[in-house]
Amino acid sequence: MSEGGFKKPWSGRFSEETEKAVEEFTASISFDSRLYRYDIKGSIAHCKALEKASIITSDESDRIISALQEIEKEIEEGKFEFSTELEDIHMHIEKRLIEKIGELGGKLHTGRSRNDQVVLDMRLYLADQIEEILSNIRAVQKVLLEKAKSSLDIIMPGYTHLQMAQPVMLSHYLIAFIDMLDRDRERFLDCLKRVKVLPSGSGALAGIPYDLDRYYIAELLGFPEISKNSIDAVSDRDFLIEFASSAAITMVHLGRLSEDFIIWASSEFGFIEIPDKFSTGSSIMPQKKNPDVFELIRGKTGRIFGNLQSLLVMMKGLPLSYNRDMQEDKEAIFDTVDTLKGCLKILVPLLDAVNFRKEAMLTAVNSGFLTSTDLADYLVRKGVPFRKAHEIVGNLVKYCISSSRRLSELTLEEMQRFSPQFEIDALRFIDPWNSVNTRSLPGGTARICVEERIREIERQFAD
């Protein structure tokens, strides 16, 4: 006998009450209480299916649904008491239902098991969370787009191996993350198809002997599909692993953006200024201004990776069908949802507040040899094989380094010492904006390409 005289669902088989330590160890109510809304939503749909199958009357259905709605309100208003003795959210709601309407409340569990009930709750929960995450991603994309539109006159060094490589438009760089986040949205949308599959009617594992209309339940809950195998339905956690994988990839992108901005905020780079309200200081060094928000996003990436690993290890080698190990899925998923949403939400005002330092970026572009490839391409147009042109320009760069000169400081006569093919028009190819604008194939960094891509994204966001 449990709290308030409520018997555990399996008590008829047992001659002893559950050990208190076992109740505390096996209880999941401390974290699955957040599923209450979805448990009640699924229970209401199940109740309507029981009525449709004439297992309960219309009046009984109305009384059960009304009581469930009252319980939902009690939980939302903080008037509901939770206890480890009742183990999980399902038993809490069932106990309260029976308290409210008596034995009639016990009819609700007809034709279902906690095995299919819990997976339904998680599917309903995750469907809602994915919709919110999609909205959060779009919000980050929109602020990146606005930054790209306002930065069309800013040129910066593009990097490979964290070494300055070629000049690119800052807008082109920012749009790279919009494209990454587009792929993230596609993954979550695709994942959503496999989340919205109805497991109800699967019972513990073998299905149920009642004539419940599963398609009717699916329609009530907004699920386009029903599961096709009852054993798989109660033991499937692929949709959670897929979600966690999509979240991990998204965090890779947020972590890479954060890494760049952390570097750019350093005094050595000085490419960006993060406002004081989005920064923190040091408890010992008065001069410090730290990019802690970006650092925490970078750090939380590993946390989400860990949750994915936890889910994969949990499911590895589990025999079919349901096993209690699967209770461990919730904390990993809840933490992944909360962490990802938190990172996406803070990024919107943070990115909006970041100031790009145009002159610092231009100085960096001019301080390197970022248009070296353009000079090699110039020679190619003059008939020099690319490998030979590469060697010529490499020697030219070596000469600049030894004489502490920039490419832009060379005279035509000096350039012709390395190749007679250099003519007066070669000097134009040293200009970084010329370098940018010659890369005008679709997807390139030329301003004409970037402006067209911005228009394309605006049309996409308007749809």
**Low-pLDDT sequence parts:** none
Figure out the total of helices: 18
Average pLDDT, rounded to a whole number, is 94
> How widely separated are the two ends?
57 Å
Q: Round the Cα radius of gyration to an integer and report it.
A: 31 Å
The biggest beta sheet reads:
2 strands, antiparallel
- What series of H and E elements makes up the topology? HHHHHHEEHEHEHHEHHEHHHHHH
- Give the % helix: 55-70%
User: What percent strand?
Assistant: under 5%
Strand order in space, largest sheet: 1-2
Query: Structural class per helix/strand content?
Result: mainly alpha
> How would you sum up the global shape?
elongated
Structural notes for this entry:
The chain has 463 residues and is mainly alpha-helical. 60% of the residues lie in helices and 5% in strands. The protein contains 18 helices and 6 strands. It has helices at residues 20-26, 29-32, 36-52, 58-76, 89-101, 114-149, 170-195, 214-221, 230-235, 238-264, 292-315, 329-353, 358-367, 372-381, 386-402, 412-416, 432-438, 447-462, and strands at 155-160, 163-169, 197-198, 225-226, 272-273, 355-356. The strands form 3 sheets. A two-stranded antiparallel ribbon has the order 1-2. Strands 3-4 form a two-stranded parallel ribbon. A two-stranded antiparallel sheet has the order 5-6. A hairpin with a 2-residue loop joins strand 1 and strand 2. Helix 6 (114-149) runs parallel beside helix 12 (329-353) and helix 10 (238-264) packs antiparallel against helix 11 (292-315). It is elongated. The protein starts with 19 loop residues before the first helix and ends with a helix.
